[in-house]
Design goal:
alpha+beta; BirA Bifunctional Protein, domain 2; Rossmann fold; 18 strands; 40% helix; 20% strand; elongated; HisRS/HisZ; cytoplasm; Histidine--tRNA ligase; EC 6.1.1.21; aa-tRNA-synth_II
Length: 506
């Protein structure tokens, strides 16, 4: 009886996740360095928190279900405590600050970059794992800390190469919206879930427009795929009040603030929020950021419940064309706000806090469209070819590659099957190697090494039309003395870099 052949395991990338290659990762490193340098210019310092936190620390635990799955990936550890992959970088920071409160300087100014995870339905441009880069000030009660972070967000955009006029930092205050909630009868803990639904609805204004938001404020909305999103259940009068707040923006900050004062005239908390916006507007003006870089905009409503004061978003305003030629905008690439109650969940005292988060992947895509962040050309290592496999020859090749590395030249000895020399050169080509080092027994006896310039070889190969000419020309290959290997490779690499620089400038 024939033995049953076992089925091969199918290689599958999980939905909502992506693999990233070296060129994208190097481009990301360049971008992250610019953000890091900007944050440090403002006095922020790095900190790192783990990707897993206890689920209750993230504020996502649902006690009426077997698994806390409201947007997070969760598991139980060996003592049956629920842990979840972090949903954002702010809640883990709040836990870190509370746990180390007595040892940290106050205000505590930190930044951190890392991947966050969302247990949500993936879609085009919507991933379950993505990177954020945050900066937070904890222990500063004045909205001057919020204003400073908005200015830093503006500086970050411009340092990344986004021109003034192609972005805007929009600023609002959740206290003003809380005042609107009082007016329509949604104040109090018993209405917390409906308030959150209202916030999430308004947060979609730029994507769905006024009528789409109105549906979400009412009974709900069905999207193009047929999926239905339940609404906040507001009646028409209450929805009109919310939309009037969202559309209260005027040509000047003073005009917007006057409109907001009229809307929440009967709300103490709303009036407090308006005055905070007025203070921030004055600070923007004093620092020179009221020239269109930073705007007071009531349509900004961050969708998370823990915001307690000013909220802000970095929005890209330039248009690009999609594959069908239709104009599209990247929209928000970062945001944040004040969250005075988040750290306080762990403590018996209020801890005022504010922070900003950059959506790294989305901002990277925008920078590539602008030509500010192209994929990096990955120049591979110098490849030392292996002509003989005896121990003496291998030792010789290993000494050769170590000489190159000692001189700071990225290099490797070919570790595959050396029987077909052409395969070694094909390998070097695939690695985008600048050159290959070739030495057989005859070259060794002559005290010489062949260096094959693979970059020049590619160029010349385009001009050679037949194999006979190719074999006779041996393009871009030359002999050097063994003792001059490092010197000649360095000379070649320098020449190649000069050629690349000329191409970039032309």
């Amino acid at each position: 009886m024939a033995k049953k052949k076992s089925a091969k395991l199918k290689a599958r990338l999980p939905r909502g996740f992506v693999d990233r290659g070296p060129s994208e990762l190097l481009a990301m490193d360049r971008m992250l360095k610019v953000i890091k340098d900007t944050y440090e210019l403002y006095g922020f310092e790095p900190v790192e928190t783990p990707q897993f936190e206890y689920t209750d620390a993230l504020g996502k635990f649902l006690p009426d279900q077997d698994r806390p799955n409201a947007g997070v990936f969760s598991l139980q550890d060996d003592d049956e405590q629920w842990m979840s992959l972090r949903y954002d970088l702010t809640a883990p920071l709040a836990r870190h600050v509370a746990e180390n409160f007595d040892h940290l300087p106050k205000p505590y100014r930190s930044y951190r970059a890392g991947y966050v995870f969302r247990n949500e339905k993936p879609g085009p441009g919507r991933f379950r794992q993505f990177m954020q880069f945050d900066a937070d000030t904890i222990g500063a009660p004045s909205v001057s800390a919020d204003a400073e972070i908005c200015m830093m967000a503006s500086d970050t955009m411009e340092r990344l190469g986004i021109a003034r006029g192609d972005y805007v930092i929009r600023v609002n205050n959740r206290k003003v919206l809380d005042g609107v909630m009082e007016v329509i009868g949604l104040a109090g803990d018993e209405h917390a879930e409906r308030r959150l639904t209202v916030l999430r609805a308004v947060d979609k204004l730029d994507r769905l427009g006024v009528e789409g938001v109105r549906l979400l404020l009412g009974e709900g909305r069905k999207d193009d795929s047929g999926d239905f999103t339940k609404g906040a259940g507001l009646d028409d009068k209450a929805a009109d009040v919310v939309l009037a707040f969202v559309e209260a923006g005027a040509e000047t900050a003073a005009g917007t603030i006057d409109n907001l004062r009229k809307l929440i005239v009967d709300s103490t908390v709303g009036a407090e929020g308006v005055e905070e916006l007025a203070t921030m507007a004055a600070l923007f003006d004093a620092a020179g950021y009221s020239d269109g870089r930073v705007l007071i905009d009531p349509s900004v409503v961050r969708g998370l419940e823990y915001y307690t004061g000013p909220v802000y978003e970095a929005e890209l305003t330039f248009e690009v064309k999609d594959e069908k030629g239709n104009p599209v905008r990247f929209g928000s690439v970062g945001g944040g706000g004040r969250y005075d109650g988040l750290v306080s969940r762990f403590m018996s005292q209020p801890v005022p806090s504010t922070g900003f988060s950059v959506g790294v992947s989305r901002l990277m895509a925008a920078l590539k469209v602008l030509g500010k962040l192209g994929d990096e050309e990955i120049l591979g290592p110098v490849v030392v070819c292996v002509m003989d496999r005896d121990t003496e020859s291998l030792s010789h090749y290993m000494r050769m590659v170590q000489e190159l590395r000692t001189a700071g030249i990225r290099s490797e000895m070919f570790q595959g099957n050396p029987k077909q020399f052409g395969k070694q050169l094909q390998y070097a080509d695939k690695r985008n190697s600048p050159c290959a080092i070739i030495q057989g027994s005859q070259e060794r006896e002559a005290g010489e090494i062949q260096i094959k310039d693979l970059i020049e070889g590619k160029r010349l190969s385009e001009e050679i039309e037949d194999n006979k000419t190719w074999r006779e020309s041996r393009p871009a290959q030359f002999a050097v003395k063994t003792e001059n290997l490092v010197e000649e490779v360095l000379k070649l690499l320098k020449s190649q870099e000069q050629d690349r620089q000329k191409e970039r400038e032309s």
